[in-house]
Amino acid sequence: MIKVIFALFLAFQQITCSGYLELYFQSEFHLKATVNITSCSTTAPPTLIPLMISSNETVKMHKVPMKMDGSEYQITIFVINQDRLDIDNATITTSFVPKNGQISPLTVMFPFTGIRMRVGCDEQWHGEKCDVFCCSETASRVGKVCNSHGQLGCPQGKRGLDCALPISKKWCKCQNNGACISSFGKNLHEKMQCECQLGFRGSHCEERVDNIEMKSTYGVDPKKFEIATAKMLYESVVDNELVEVKRERTGGHFLQNLRINDQ
Ligand SMILES: *[C@@H]1O[C@H](CO)[C@@H](O)[C@H](O)[C@H]1NC(C)=O
Ligand SMILES: *[C@@H]1O[C@H](CO)[C@@H](O)[C@H](O)[C@H]1NC(C)=O
Ligand SMILES: *[C@@H]1O[C@H](CO)[C@@H](O)[C@H](O)[C@H]1NC(C)=O
């Protein structure tokens, strides 16, 4: 048994990493959009994805592979609103370094009511950079699971080489509802570690993961532009209906993030 597990660990050491971005959108309007995903660290052409968004339906965009090696990505969502012709277009931009467990913006603006930007690891990959490989099938053959750290561990609540002993939460002192789990290191030494809820990190889940920030710019024709439209745009900030972790929003966010392009 011990030999088997040790051999597995050797097989687990790999260098490549593998993750993806998944986008979800929600709006009260019918929208025609193009999503442009550009990696800032390569000269590869951007990924352009056309999307039709029907009102009040959550639209999910297929997964786009992402490099998780610290490269920055720029994402631009260009939108034509087919229901509000007084605003010609909207451009929503963000740039970030993708990390597993990142959370979506807390607020969104016209014409959206929800945007989820889900960064995840491909199957069998784990860790913030999706660079820790652990094969769940092989793990289950030795009565273990791959935990969120990409280490062999016991199913939640259990510990011991045979995963037959109970775990006491007190051993880990995890904050923010983190779970105390078992994790077998290379020498089969078992450690108790925290497995954090989405939105938290750190060895005791004591740190908040930052949310992604987005900026909106509107293209409006000055001839059609009215005070009522400007007021509507300024007041269109809403709590993101698709955010994974609800938090109170910080003030002043939308004014900084609004620019009307009317020349
Ligand atoms: C979408 O939802 C909003 C708010 O609930 C509502 O005002 C609007 O009429 C809905 N649109 C459609 C096409 O159902
Ligand atoms: C996509 O975004 C990149 C980076 O912002 C930009 O240089 C490029 O022109 C855009 N491509 C299209 C087709 O909009
Ligand atoms: C967006 O709208 C503005 C204002 O009407 C216009 O000048 C601009 O060309 C539009 N952008 C695109 C890409 O259509």
From TrEMBL:
Cellular component GO terms held in the UniProt record: plasma membrane
InterPro entries registered for this protein in UniProt: DSL, EGF, Lag2
Protein topology in the membrane: Single-pass type I membrane protein
Domain EGF-like, residue spans: 168-206
Gene Ontology MF: a single term: Notch binding
GO biological process, one term: Notch signaling pathway
Keyword Disulfide bond among record annotations: yes
N-terminal signal peptide: 1-17
Keywords: Developmental protein, Disulfide bond, EGF-like domain, Membrane, Repeat, Signal, Transmembrane, Transmembrane helix
Covalent S-S links between cysteines: 121-130, 134-146, 154-163, 196-205
Residues in DSL domain copies: 119-163
Source domain of life: Eukaryota
Protein localization: Membrane
SMART domains: DSL (SM00051)
Signal in keyword set: yes
Function, in words: Putative Notch ligand involved in the mediation of Notch signaling.
PANTHER family: DELTA-LIKE PROTEIN (PTHR22669:SF10), DELTA/SERRATE/LAG-2 DOMAIN PROTEIN (PTHR22669)
Protein name, per record: Delta-like protein
